[in-house]
User: What shape does this take?
Amino acid sequence: MQIAKGLHPGRQGATGDLLCLAAENGHASVLKYLLPARRCDWGPRMPEFGCHLDKLLVRPSRKGHHGAVKVLLDHGADHSWANVKGRTALHHAATSGFSSVIEVLLDGGAEISAPDWHQGADISAKCNAGRSPIFNAVESNNLELAEFLLSKGCDPMSRENLGSTPLHRAVENGLYEMSKLLVRYGSQVDAEADSKTTVLDWAIRGRDVRVVIFILEALAKMPPANALGSSALHPAAALGRPEAVKILIDKGYDVNLKILDRGYTPLHEAFSRRCIGSMEHLLNKGADVNAVMGNGTTLLQFAAAAEGDLVNAVQLLLKNGADMEAWDVDGRTPLDMAMTAGNYDVVELLKENRPIGLHAALRRRRSVSMDIFKGR
Assistant: This one.
């Protein structure tokens, strides 16, 4: 305060610097001393002082200095001012978790569901084009702040640029308690993002199976397959979530449902991640080990020509009756494909498991086919 009183009236740059320091460090009394005379003379924008009152509001908001925030608001600072990323003082306070600052901003007229106009979203759009402060509370897993915001009227169904809700984000990050809180305040468990992915799809991406169970139990009915023919079981298998796979199967999801474009079943998806646990669950529940994909190949043929650690997956397929005699559209067997790909561990495994005389029989079949083709 003594420094503020000692400032010469003509030293405007120094005054601006001191205002910034006072706002940053929450010195409300210094702000009160410096601001009254200027409120009427200059208004919120003060270029001659190298300072902008609206910008100053962000500094104490992100540091939790609610007293300084109130002083700035009382002297005309605009709570709706946003930086180039569209973040207002309210967003900064929510990100930092300061409910006391949020309370002051709300008393000053800030909109609790105001969107964060990030990544070039149209400023005339409503909340489904940006991020409201509840997203900040969710991503920081601040339950106390989230409940405070929701109790003050923050929309639990506000949507960000991609159409996802706070619940989508909570379940994706495996936030069990946060997910329950959002549902309690009205978040819809059957909501879809713009990509048509459901809350359940996002929950499966997370790593807390409790969240998956919670969403399944909260759903009134099992979500249908999407426009591509994929159900929640496909991403569960593809992402290597054996616990989620088991739960979804027990809930009645079709283990042999094929994606429309590629013809992949959940078993194909599980193999793509070499997730033996998921493959076992699927096979034990009736997954067709010889289901043909869209390109006309079986999973054993696909596995024989694939890259990476294949032996355990191939062993599991063979144990469950994978057809070693199946030909692809080019007349190749899994053994042929493994040899061509240089997967010699798989070659040995297939040779060990083939029926007696199989390879000779296949060669005879191929010879006969070639004779017919050549008109012999």
